[in-house]
Amino acid sequence: MLAESQGENDAAPAREYTRFELEEMRSERALLLWAPPVALALAFIMLQSDTWRWLARTFLTMWIHELGHAVAAWLSGRFAVPGPWVTRIGDGTSAATILLVAAGIGYLGYRGWREQRRWLMGLAACLAIVQVVCTLLLSRAKADAFITFFGDGGMLVLGAGLILTFWSPPGSYLHRQWLRWGFLVIGAFAFADATLSWLAAHKDSSTIPYGEIAGVGHSDPTKLVFDRNWTQDSMIARYLWLAAASFVAVAGRYAVAALRPPPEPAPLVDD
Questions:
Q1: How far apart are alpha carbons 220 and 202 in whole angstroms?
Q2: Cβ contacts of residue 4 below 8 Å, gap of 6+?
Q3: Confidence (pLDDT) at 188
Q4: Which pLDDT score is estimated for 1?
Q5: What was the pLDDT predicted at 129?
């Protein structure tokens, strides 16, 4: 009896919430359920306009496209500098690049372990595997194809990743500094831009931007089909499959937030 009484006394007291805190929790839940789908819907709608697509590509999605090339190059052990409309990539693998990327991935895993975030540790493990495969197992030709493919591919994967940052935990840097709102907009437009492009290509192959870009060289589809010997159908299919996988990742995270029961803090105290 004494032990039971002692256990009851040691139990943590119920968390008390003010009315302001309760309203804040309800508002946050509403934002998590509405903001991502609204952002994606608006991006898909606005990008139907040639004017909005030009503006989005100039100020938002082009940068994610070039970052995608750079990320693929870094994971393949190549030095790369993303810039406006073109990414400068080194000719061969760089030991310094390999070590820097490995150190960055290791730090990401350490942060996940220290903060007990399993998803962060899982992301670091996946990136480590991708780096090993791209650096050690891919031939030069396949690595070049991967880097080329990951322009629009990066818009899909990185775009989805930026959308996922909207579910960053309260109190985190992304949440406190409102960065998640900017990342949500950029990610939604990047994902929508690439998805719309390859859905259009699936319906009408004449929309594929073959040819040469002034000051840059051959376009990505030209390199993949004519230099890397991909078939047009396989190129379109790979982009669409990647779009579907990226969307499933976002939809899965959304489902977790939607199925989580709403906060029911009790007891409630006055402000």
A1: 16
A2: none
A3: 98
A4: 43
A5: 96
